[in-house]
Amino acid sequence: MTALPTARGLFRQLLRARAVAFRGDQTALNASREEIRKHFQESAHLEPEEARKKIEEGVEAESFIRLHVVQAQVNDKGNYEMSIEPQHVDRAVPGENTIESPDGGGGCSSGKT
């Protein structure tokens, strides 16, 4: 098992991960910063074992943000486009890299059609 970061180190890692994931989206950047800060403030007075569990959860959250969060933006045609980076592709499951709209209509694909 790898060593856990300190609470301060985890806080910084989460802020960096959200800065990359939400680059260019000030609304998402602000909301995610406030959410991260809220969770840390709520956990400030935990006992050591409870704090350790929260740090483990935070490590998982940072990894999820870094590896699985991809923002889509509307292009000139009204379709959504995503910038898939290497960390997203390496972990993709074949056949599961297409996002469809809830109504079953055309979504967007990160790969070839």
TrEMBL record:
GO terms for cellular component: mitochondrial matrix. It is found in: Mitochondrion matrix. Coiled coil: none annotated. Residues 103-113 have a biased composition (Gly residues). Residues 86-113 are annotated as: Disordered. GO terms for biological process: mitochondrial respiratory chain complex III assembly. This is Mitochondrial zinc maintenance protein 1, mitochondrial. It comes from Micromonas commoda (strain RCC299 / NOUM17 / CCMP2709). The lineage of its organism: Eukaryota, Viridiplantae, Chlorophyta, Mamiellophyceae, Mamiellales.
